[in-house]
Every structure is written in C-alpha cells, then in structure tokens.
Amino acid sequence: MTQKPASRIVHINGWPGTGKLTIGRLLAKKLGARLIDNHMLLNPAEALFARSNPLHASPREQVRRAVFDHAVRADPAESFVFTDALADDEHDRAMFSWYPDLAAARGADLVAVLLDCAPEENARRLVSPGRSEALKLTDPARLQQLRATYKLLRGLPEHTVEIDTTKLSPEETAARILAQIGV
Length: 183
Hints:
By secondary structure, the protein is an alpha/beta fold. It has eight helices and five strands, in the order βαβααβααβααβα. It has a five-stranded parallel β-sheet. The radius of gyration is 16 Å and the shape is globular.
C-alpha cells in the first residue's frame, strides 16, 4: 500500500509585488492545494475601512480567524498555500504563529517561503495592470518606505526557502520551491 503524501501548509511571504499570488497559484495547482491569498483575508476590511481607521483591524481579524478555524476542519489530506506580506516585528510574528498552529492541528508539514526581488524590479512590478482593482499596493513611494522601515519575516528561521525573484519567471520560482520541498 502506498502512503499518501502528508498535507502541507505552504506560507509564501514577501513584499507587495514580488509575485506571491502568481507563484502561489502555480504551487497550489502543482500540489493540488487550496490557495488562500492574503487579499482574501484583507479585502473585506479594506472595502469597509481605510487601514488608518481603528475599525479596520476588527473585520480583518474576524475573517482571518474564520478562515483558519475552518481550515483546521478541512479534509486532513487537503494542502493549503497562503500568501502574506509580514514584517519581522512583534505583531507580524504573532500573525505568523497561526501557521505552525494550523499545521500542528492538521498534522501537516509547514513550509515557509520568503520571496524578494531587487527594489527597482519590485517597484516596476508594483504598477502592473490589475493590482489596484484587487486593492493591492500600487504606490512605489509607499513600497520604498516599507522596504526602508521593515525587514521581511523569515517564518521558520532555521529552514525558510528564500528566493530572489528578480530574474526568475513565476514558473522558475515555483519549480525552485517545489525542488526545495521535495516535490
């Protein structure tokens, strides 16, 4: 009897515009996983309140909690690919802690992926068509400020797959991730 591969939780972290969603789609397809893009979790709050509004945090937290509560109860063989833009600060480390908890509750392997690219390439990608309609960051000055102020969170410090996407296609990046995780 062949053993079915363990389910996975793949967490892709990176700056806005590094290709998280595109790469996440490719990984989800290859792994037969469900994709949960960070904008699925953010956009309900974005539709209601500006990020500067204190009320923004409440629906964002409620949507996130509901998704994670239901993901725990999904078919145990089901894998998930999540995207995020988390900084290495106390708040975002606490948000990342949901992923190891989810993996443990599901008996799944957790794979942390960190995507980055050169700042000039990142700014170029940030203004790609369709980003503003998806309520994604499109302001290069804001991106520059984020990059200058924050450092990206390495989800699992001892073994995070780190990839510079500057000169890679989404397909090449996904292939590198899959090779790193043994798929």
